């Protein structure tokens, strides 16, 4: 069997890493990896391949653009060429980025089966780019690998029942696998003490692209940083917006650092007090680490965690209040499977293809 895996953005490298290590166990599977180039800075891309022990992508398309249509369109053109040349049995797609959607469109027009890892997630607002990407990809996938029971229910509600497999979450797999290698060096470098700092990540367009909203968020976090240290590995998009909107004065009390790799982020998370984030994956990694995340979003694809009172959704006006009042999260076992999602995904593909 030949699998063509498509990745492009940071969270996809993490998911591909665990699938790749599973595929490597079988001589009868050949995997071709395409990196679209959506994330291109070394600290957003190359470093992940290094620390997660992945082989270099077979193709790197070097496509990135600020406009969604331009980026997705260019990717479709190149991915179609590669699919025609490689003739894979199945195209493996991850999550909800523009790289995911481009892969789905190219494969479906060539009538190549699509397997979607992290299928079934749904969240408001329906017009956010990630929601559009995952809904459309789910519609045209033949294999839908779902990380949680709620995802299965979401798909059922949309009439999608065929090809749906509850496998658990590949991000939980990799978290367990890499835990012994988590990197704690930043604790010392940044003079951090256990339970006495907050980690914040921010990058969603609806949070960072509107000046008034970004200003409100940063004001709230600035207030928090007067009481407890806040460490912010900054996404390039957010850094650009802070500069453009003249908001740099609001982050002077925050420990702003360059984007860090997976092992470093997990190392910090093991020791932090809480997490503030608008990342889909990171709110769940906080939970794996037994920490509470205050999620700056109107809704979340990981609703199990907010329904159970583990994580808290927050708007831009209540971040301080939510961070201060929220109770400590209790870990509940097995919401996202048993740490063997990648194994299940690969064995399902071997049986059915
Ligand atoms: C993308 C995904 C999002 C995912 C996130 C993880 C889409 C629609 N969104 O959002 O689901 O949670 O990745 O980070 O696909 N940039 C750099 N260097 C880089 C990467 C990006 O400077 O290495 C700049 C880009 O040029 C662009 C901005 O950051 O101006 C945003 O990048 P983009 O890939 O469009 O979306 P993300 O916000 O990263």
Automatic annotation (TrEMBL):
Q: Which UniProt keywords apply?
A: Isomerase
Signal peptide start and end residues: none
Family, as annotated: Belongs to the UDP-N-acetylglucosamine 2-epimerase family.
- State the name under which the record lists this protein: UDP-N-acetylglucosamine 3-epimerase
What the entry lists under Pfam families is as follows: Epimerase_2 (PF02350)
Give the highest taxon in the source lineage: Bacteria
Q: Where is the UDP-N-acetylglucosamine 2-epimerase domain?
A: 22-350
Gene Ontology molecular functions: isomerase activity
In the UniProt record, does the keyword Isomerase occur? yes
